[in-house]
Amino acid sequence: MSWLLKSSIGKKLIMSVTGIALILFLLFHAAMNVTAVFSEDAYNTICSLLGANWYAVAGTIALGALVAIHFIYALILTLQNRKARGNDSYAVNVRPKNVEWASQNMFVLGVIVIGFMFLHFSQFWYKMMFVELMGHHEVALGGAVVSPQDGAAFIKYYFSQTWVVIAYLVWYVALWFHLSHGFWSAIQTIGWNNTIWMNRWKVIGQVVATVICLAFAFVTIYFYARHYFCLGA
After folding, report:
1. Do 4 and 10 meet the contact criterion of CB atoms below 8 Å apart?
2. Is pTM beyond 0.90 here?
3. d(CA 171, CA 176)
4. How many domains, in total, are found in the chain?
5. Which of 11, 39, 220, 227 has its CA 20 to 30 A from that of 94?
6. For 159-207, what is each residue's pLDDT tens digit?
7. Angle between helices 106-120 and 54-85 (to 10 degrees)
8. Residue 48 gets which letter from DSSP?
9. Where are the beta strands (DSSP E) in 96-229?
10. Distance CA 180, CA 190 (A)
11. In CATH, what number is assigned to the domain containing residue 107?
12. What is the pLDDT of residues 8-26, one digit of tens each?
């Protein structure tokens, strides 16, 4: 078991498994958000089910642990790689042929993704689940008072602000690059690849990343456009 925590391949395996788990969560989250476009009541029902219930709290803790483990091991591997390169790490960084840009910038992309997660948590999780956990049933939102389970109200409020929309769209771009490379890289580390399937996994990774990020972007742009072109509806 110690090899899993100490060896380079063990650390990469942990990163791969946690990464795949986070991708599955993002697929669920994206599908949940799209629901708000077609039925705000259905979206609020989901928010109610995922409120301060014990299973939702347990899931949130597990999700936080996955993110923390994924980031910590990414940081460890990045520092180890730089140490191994020694003086070469200060040389001019020329991207080798057939090496993707995302591959060379996965850690930076990950930092951007996690950085924006704090913005997302402060706008949604903190004012929804956390408020409920504190025993409150109302929360101030843009001069109004709403229920922390009224997820549609939060989406409509935040995605009506231009700076928020721009920030989230930048986030989605960084997320796409991170996921499109991370997916097939995780599959490769786990060992589910061969000369035939490697290119297929790369395509599947790009499709999965595109579906997730387009779904998020669609919801963001939809509510922004609806606010400004449908009289603030």
Report:
1. yes
2. no
3. 9
4. 1
5. 11
6. 999 999 999 999 999 999 999 989 988 998 888 777 788 888 999 999 9
7. 150
8. H
9. 139-141, 144-146
10. 16
11. 1.20.1300.10
12. 888 889 999 999 999 999 9
